[in-house]
Batch of 2 targets.
Target 1
Amino acid sequence: MRVTTSFPLGTLRDTPSEAEIISHQLLLKGGYIRRINSGIYAYMPIMLRVIEKISNIIRKELNKLGCSKLLLPQLHPSDLWKKSERWEGYTAGEGIMFNLKDRQGKEFGLAPTHEEVITSIASEIINSYKQLPLCFYQIQTKFRDEIRPRFGLMRSREFIMKDGYSFHSSKEDLVSFYKKMEIAYENIFTNCGLETVGVDADSGSIGGASSKEFMVTAEAGEDTILFTKSGSYAANIEKAVSIPNEAIPLKTKTDKLLETPNQKSISDICKNNNLDPTQIVKVVLYIARFEDKSEIPILTCIRGDQNINEIKLHNLISNKHSSNLIKLNKIENIKHIEKNLSNLPIGYIGPDLKDTVINKNSYWTKTWLRIADYSASNLSDFISGANKLNFHKVFNEFSFSEEQFLISDIRNAKKGDFTIKGNKETLREKKGIEIGHIFQLGQKYSEKLNASFSDNDGKLKNLWMGCYGIGVTRIAQAAIEQNYDENGIIWPIQISPFEVVIIPTNLKDPIQKNLTEEIYKDFKKNNLDVLLDDRDERAGVKFKDADLIGIPFQIIIGRDSINKEVEFLCRSSKNKFKIASKNLLEKFIYESEVMYNKKS
RNA sequence: CGGGGCGUGGCGCAGCUUGGUAGCGCGGGUGCUUUGGGAGCACUAGGUCGCAGGUUCGAAUCCUGUCGCCCCGACCA
């Protein structure tokens, strides 16, 4: 490609002020993307080449696994989503699905994901176990009306994703395919030149049993991952389990009230009464709203030094209830409290808070769903709220009985905790960017959408499903977050828009011009990804742009042209040397092979 | 949704406090010089100052409303 005739660069001299993180700044400054609206970007020609490289790597690996590529519609009729019972949750309130009506008044959603559509198709074309397993995938734009789009392509409202869906006749087959997919994913990310970590993950609103996320570790990441040094354990903090530090036993052994005026926080109580946070049980109230419009008040207990993991809590409540849990809010809004609760001593609530505080005329369920984390239920002597303003209470031999409490893990694991593996390893913490996620969905969608097949025993059974996502545009940005320097991007060669850029320093010199053309044609003839910066610009401008856009190799054609010599420069190592032009092609092929193999 | 910030030419910004009809740097165009790390000089094009009201002889500037964007949080997978 020639910059002047077919490949305009569009680099910027100043960084647009909207960009906060380095990868976003470099994408904008390098002319890769342009913002059209909040979370909506145009991919410029140079960006599209990166996207296509990533797509090709994905396609090769998935085809090896026997997956078939297809393309599904993006406009989905609401009835499909109503069948899976996700329409309300995805459109109402803070749902993320853009939705609209056609001229007939029929409702549609703009696809954030494709489980419904693919399951509906699979149910039509799969009749027999003999057709299984099958895996379909597509690479396509997804739409999500994010509450807060940010960081460029990291969390945008329109983004390109590879999503794949597999169908199986048994759970065992699903599990074995899932494991193959896990390896395929590792290959894909390695082939993209990325360093990733696989972690146990929450399966979220997609649903399903087992799930694993692939993370690019980077400071700018929005997820927190907990892991051990040895690699024996790695999980997203949303899912991570651990053993908290030991509690300090409470000395006071008698039931009594503790006057604690204006001591609403754990730290206040500890400071004023010479207590340790591990001697306190913290009670947090929530209200859970379900798809069927019912609302259940939740009372949670956890040890004072620990924090509630609302995702675990969400999943726990969701599993205990037949309708979908749409929203879980802390009870802290004064208007809500006044409307539904009476005599609630905020800041002084204990695990034995009476059901009678819930107003008779409230539309909430009239009993608390009481949930205790293990860290609380393991305590029998502790301090907690006395359910009386300005008083706490010593609880002595209190029992979190299973009749009254749902006892479970609803705690946030944190760095420094011991793992549950019993090997005395402690957890470390890093930020990560989620670029891939694989799920064992099970039969959730095949049941709801009635997708069944005849098994070899002649019985009609529901399909077993897996689903597998990769954020294509997110990979591109994550790769930059992992590979840049003060001059710009340093692409891994596997996903770089070009493998090499030719920079003639003075095209007015006929000797340089001729040599440039000679070399460019030679590279083209050998099917190499080569960009020729044939602009009538000063050399410095072209050097700056070449560094900024981050092509891994640069060929500089200058004064030494007279001797048929050029310079060959490696963007990442900054190594630069002179070479006779007749040896250039061979040298380049060798060096690029080394670079490809180094990471893949 | 809560908190903070910002909307002035393609990009980055100043001007606003104290109203007088818009400016700087980069970028664009033309010419000459220059030519290995974002060149110099000269000329030049380009903006109804987010939008709508209001105050005033006069509004980028003051007032009211509104829209949008960015950041932090809530939330979300």
Target 2
Amino acid sequence: MGLAKTEIFTDRQNQIALFAKAFGHPARVAILQHLFKINACICGDLVDEIGLAQPTISQHLKELKQLGLIKGNVEGTSVCYCIDNESWTGMKETMLEFLNQDISKKEDCC
Amino acid sequence: MGLAKTEIFTDRQNQIALFAKAFGHPARVAILQHLFKINACICGDLVDEIGLAQPTISQHLKELKQLGLIKGNVEGTSVCYCIDNESWTGMKETMLEFLNQDISKKEDCC
DNA sequence: TTGTTATATTGCAATATTACGATTAATAAT
DNA sequence: ATTATTAATCGTAATATTGCAATATAACAA
């Protein structure tokens, strides 16, 4: 199939999976790290910074933008991409709740 | 391609991506949540709990096991799967560092 | 041994993802 | 107007992922 059966899971489970999927490629991890480091960025920088072709970077940026984690403002011929901090905070809450399931948990069972 | 160019990224970036990828499917999210809830589990439970066929669950369990996040002990005809808490803690550190990049950051740039 | 139960593995079809060359669109500079 | 620059989009090849039926394996029960 290649198609996840999202209908049988909760919205929350699907949302966690969607966020995680966005971080599931090192290029997108690197893009986000760079955006945090620079705190303002144009796409050309990213093509130089990360060693992938321009259309590939553009595609990764699109995915992050669709999720709402980054936003882009057109500035002349270039586009200024940056983190959407509000959205990042929201995502973090969801992911932290998932990651912190282990607190209040005893030792391994087996 | 369909093949990520891992060579051009740092080990850390690749590791974040690997962990995230594991959480990038709602079935694996649901499996982990269930294991935390029950704190001891046999696979049959999971097939009932989650609405996927037995081979599919088995495959998802294998991926989580390969990453080290869960471990399975054979008990008679069934297998007792549970969270590997030590491994989970290690994963959490890595992911938290990534997710918390936003602290010590100013407002949006654009 | 024969059957039963529980899980893993294999094989495969459907779909998704990754990457990039070629092209396009939009603005800026001359 | 022409040309350069930047980034998005299109098309496509290679590979990965998801899901399941069929089958295999392993442990136990009778």
